[in-house]
């Protein structure tokens, strides 16, 4: 392969540096700017990491122009059609699809860790009943660090593997405990005979006084959403987990930072915001008025579930979810869902509007996901928690990849300082 270099010359000193472009296995070359600070005493400036790769990774690849998403090389469409969430989590973490024995062992390991310490359950009582579940989940995930710290050596691969088992197994239990706390219902213990998705639904919707029949379509749709949200390379929450984890902190503390970053409406909180937006718009005849507000920069209203930092074409996950919406709503007897009809119309109008066309704004993964979550009975305030359960697979995979990398360094960005230069302290009476 040809070595591609870029010459950078400092016009004031005439000093030149040759910067080498690194070749990924697929995708655009990545310019190695590491020598700049040493050779020229300058840093690079790239707010929001618009064109900066922060790490090397083998986990997920996105081609935003073509709308391609690969987990360890496998197109997300194939995994969505044929795989399960736990198999995809294995793939993300270990790099290969498991054989039958490996999958059985993996599922058993996850199943054996689904319970949480009873003391952790009591943490929920510290929250008011209407505390947002993301606040509860991020706090309780961080608290796991208090239970698994002294015995955990992050440089021991076996210990890292157990972190993966624990966090994947306990996230649904923690999420369900937050939900039951909101409702004031008794906590339902995990059922290890159920699949990952069915167990999650059982912990959410079962009550001790009655048996619950889980609709197979609900469990299937949930598993699909978990697959589609499992990883998305260096997104804000994953980068947060990497940055926190790069200090060598306890991995559960790092995952809790990921939950916090995911909560924002520009990221995972968008699924909740989309449904809120659809409810506010109400009917199709109100769409033009709403879009006029979106286009008015003074209004600060966004078309939630539209646009993406990387995708400048259809988000492949949005396509799959939209198709699934029809099937789920029909099977669960909710085919006349007015919010789904409204979302379809809103999408159609926006995709034919010059504002969205010229900015290459398309529906992202969360434009339709909330409609499926609602159809299977999950309330709006829990949507981002569901996303967090799924993204835990990616967070663990990235954390493990980073810690296992001998070249790992603490993440420590630089800045363009524009504050005052050195000045003399003045006494309070003379200010
Ligand atoms: N509604 C209206 N205008 C938008 C939207 C939107 N949803 N998204 C982007 N734009 C506009 C911006 O205002 C900007 O316009 P300008 O050029 O006139 O200033 C232009 O499109 C470019 O957008 P940026 O904000 O520069 O794009 P960026 O990559 O920084 O942001 C983001 C991406 C945060 C996802 C943005 O599109 C957004 O806020 N979308 C709505 C929230 C959402 O759905 N988030 C979920 C993302 S997917 C996920 O995290 C799972």
Describe the structure.
By secondary structure, this protein is mostly helical. The protein contains 18 helices and six strands. The strands form two sheets. A three-stranded antiparallel β-sheet has the order 1-2-3. A hairpin with a 4-residue loop joins strand 4 (60-63) and strand 5 (68-71). The mean pLDDT is 94. The structure holds acetyl coenzyme *A. Acetyl coenzyme *A is lined by residues 266-268, 270, 294, 302-309, 359, 361, 364-366.
Overall number of strands:
6
Briefly note the structural class of the backbone. mainly alpha
Tell me the distance between the termini.
64 Å
> Given the structure, what is the number of helices?
18
Beta content: 5-15%
The secondary-structure element order is EEEHEEEHHHHHHHHHHHHHHHHH
Helix content: 40-55%
CA-based shape? globular
Low-confidence stretches: none
Widest sheet: strand ordering: 1-2-3
Oligomer: single chain
Overall mean confidence score, pLDDT: 94
Radius of gyration: 24 Å
Which tags fit this structure?
431 residues, single chain, three-stranded antiparallel β-sheet, mainly alpha, globular, binds acetyl coenzyme *A, 18 helices
SSE blueprint and pairings:
Blueprint: E1 5-9, E2 16-22, E3 30-31, H1 35-40, E4 60-63, E5 68-71, E6 74-75, H2 76-82, H3 85-94, H4 100-111, H5 118-123, H6 133-147, H7 157-183, H8 196-205, H9 216-228, H10 236-245, H11 251-263, H12 270-281, H13 287-295, H14 316-331, H15 338-351, H16 354-358, H17 366-375, H18 383-404
Antiparallel strand pairs: 1-2, 2-3, 4-5, 5-6
Helix pairs in contact: 3-9, 3-18, 4-7, 6-7, 6-11, 7-8, 7-18, 8-9, 9-14, 9-17, 9-18, 10-11, 10-18, 11-18, 12-17, 14-17
Bound molecules: acetyl coenzyme *A.
């Amino acid at each position: 392969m040809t070595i591609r270099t870029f010459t950078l010359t400092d016009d004031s000193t005439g000093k030149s540096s040759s910067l080498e472009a690194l070749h990924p296995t697929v995708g655009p070359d990545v310019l190695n700017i590491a020598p700049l600070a040493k050779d020229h005493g300058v840093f690079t400036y790239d707010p929001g990491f618009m064109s900066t790769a922060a790490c090397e990774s083998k986990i997920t690849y996105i081609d935003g122009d073509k709308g391609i998403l690969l987990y360890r090389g496998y197109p997300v469409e194939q995994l969505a059609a044929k795989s399960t969430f736990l198999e995809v989590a294995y793939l993300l973490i270990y790099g290969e699809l498991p054989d039958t024995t490996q999958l059985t062992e993996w599922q058993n390991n996850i199943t054996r860790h689904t319970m949480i310490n009873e003391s952790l359950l009591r943490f929920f009582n510290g929250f008011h009943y209407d505390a947002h579940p993301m606040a509860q989940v991020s706090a309780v995930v961080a608290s796991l660090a208090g239970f698994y710290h002294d015995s955990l050596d992050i440089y021991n691969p076996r210990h890292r593997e157990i972190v993966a088992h624990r966090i994947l197994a306990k996230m649904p239990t923690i999420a369900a405990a937050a939900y039951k706390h909101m409702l004031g219902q008794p906590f339902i213990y995990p059922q290890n005979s159920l699949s990952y998705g069915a167990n999650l639904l059982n912990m959410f919707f079962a009550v001790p006084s009655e048996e619950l029949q889980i609709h197979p379509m609900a469990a299937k749709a949930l598993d699909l959403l978990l697959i589609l949200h499992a990883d998305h390379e260096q997104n804000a929450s994953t980068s947060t987990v990497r940055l926190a984890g790069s200090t060598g902190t306890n991995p559960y503390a790092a995952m809790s930072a990921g939950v916090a970053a995911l909560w924002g409406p520009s990221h995972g909180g968008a699924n909740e915001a989309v449904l809120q937006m659809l409810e506010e718009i109400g009917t199709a005849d109100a769409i033009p008025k709403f879009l006029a507000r979106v286009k008015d920069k003074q209004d600060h209203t966004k078309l939630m579930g539209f646009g993406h930092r990387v995708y400048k074409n259809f988000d492949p996950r949005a396509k799959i979810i939209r198709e699934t919406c029809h099937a789920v709503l029909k099977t669960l007897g909710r085919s006349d869902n007015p919010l789904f009809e409204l979302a379809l119309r809103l999408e159609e109008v926006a995709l034919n509007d010059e504002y969205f066309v010229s900015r290459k704004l398309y529906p992202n993964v969360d434009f339709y996901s909330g409609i499926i979550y609602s159809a299977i009975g999950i309330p709006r305030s829990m949507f981002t928690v569901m996303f967090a359960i799924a993204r835990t697979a990616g967070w663990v995979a990235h954390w493990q990849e980073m810690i296992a990398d001998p070249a790992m360094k603490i993440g420590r960005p630089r800045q363009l300082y524009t504050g005052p230069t050195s000045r003399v302290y003045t006494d309070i009476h003379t200010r």
